[in-house]
Amino acid sequence: MAGEISSLGIGSGVLTADIIDKLRANDENALVKPIDTKIETNDSKVKALDLLDSLITTFQSSTGSLGDELLYLQREGSVAGEGVSVSVEDGVNIQEFSIRVDQLAKSDVVESGSFESTDKSIASGNGTLSININNKTYEVDYESTTTLENLRDEINKFVGDDLTASILQVGDNSNKLILTSKVSGADQEILMSDSGNLDSKILNKNAAVFGGDLTSTAPNTPETIADGDITINGTSIGEVVIPGTTNSEDKAGIIAQAINDAGVGATASVVEKNGKFSLYIENTDDGVGDLTITTNANGETLSGLASSTTTGNEDGATTIQEAKDAMFQYNGIDITRSTNEVSDLRNGITISLLKVKEDDEDLNNVSVTQ
């Protein structure tokens, strides 16, 4: 001890500031620093224990989830290709299949002819506009004072469940009524007919609803429409034989098929209105001009084919997007749906059709994995 004090300079008998600093430093090294070191070591141990506790908690959570059987039911869907996307529910069968998209489903979009103003009358008198869509017929009444805006609002009021009507200004003093089906599918084709007083630019271009109610004066006997009795665009559809037991809807269908088979530059389909069946006939060949239908059938045949001539409107509404069903192949099998979202093909799997194939070998290979 005497040696240590002497080394600090105390043996000289003089207690200087330098000596005091050395004494303090000596005490800190001997007493304080070991305590600080223990504190730091304990702090490190506490942090390590906290980390270990956190890791154990995470481990417990992870191992606990392994005991849940639902973990093993989780599924993932993947697609090799750009034509479709898929979403899958847990628990579906692990599987693979291919999809080839041939046609996407589309809604129907019809635009009227052009009107200079939206707030001027578009009718010469009171009447009714009939709109056929989704195998239903709606009747929209109008008056001689009805404007394009009024008609839009009335269509949305009475037909709003199946289509949307809007007005589009396409240029200076040029406004068009746009009708858009709310869903896609071939059944969403929009067909219109009028009682006679509405501006013909609203109605389908080069098309007409014809035949009135195709009932029969003699329902239990066969009926024949003679060759030349019905001509479309100047060409006869030929002789049409209708069995006597045929109902009104099927009679209309037989005549429609005869028109479609006759090659007269027009297509026909059946339109139902309040339980009565008529024909909707539309030009299909470019350059045909106005649709003209003439019948000489007398009262002994179908009552709706009384002698008359119907001419379609060249300046009328046009279909700018045709209502279509989706068409695709599932593992080489042809499938048709009215929508591009297909959820009823495989349980728990929703297939979204996105893009039509670019060539015959353009397949989208779908895998459902765990």
What does this structure look like?
There is one protein chain. The protein is an alpha+beta fold and 370 residues long. Helix content is 22%, strand content 34%. It has a 5-stranded antiparallel β-sheet, with no helix packed on it. Strands 7-8-4-19 form a 4-stranded antiparallel β-sheet, with helices on one face. A hairpin with a 2-residue loop joins strand 12 and strand 13. The longest helix is centred in the first third of the chain and has 50 residues, at 17-66. The radius of gyration is 42 Å and the shape is elongated. The model has no long low-confidence stretch (mean pLDDT 83).
List keywords for this structure.
370 residues; alpha+beta; 24 strands; 4-stranded antiparallel β-sheet; 34% strand; 4 helices
**Run of helices and strands:** HHEEEEEEHEEEEEEEEHEEEEEEEEEE
Helical run tally? 4
> What order do the strands of the largest sheet run in, or round the barrel if closed?
1-24-3-20-21
Q: How big a fraction of the residues is strand?
A: 25-35%
The count of β-strands is 24
Average pLDDT, all residues: 83
Task: Give the helix proportion (percent range).
Answer: 10-25%
Rg over CA atoms, rounded to whole Å, is 42 Å
Low-confidence stretches: none
Broad structural category: alpha+beta
Distance between the termini: 78 Å
Sheet having the most strands: 5 strands, antiparallel
What is the global morphology? elongated
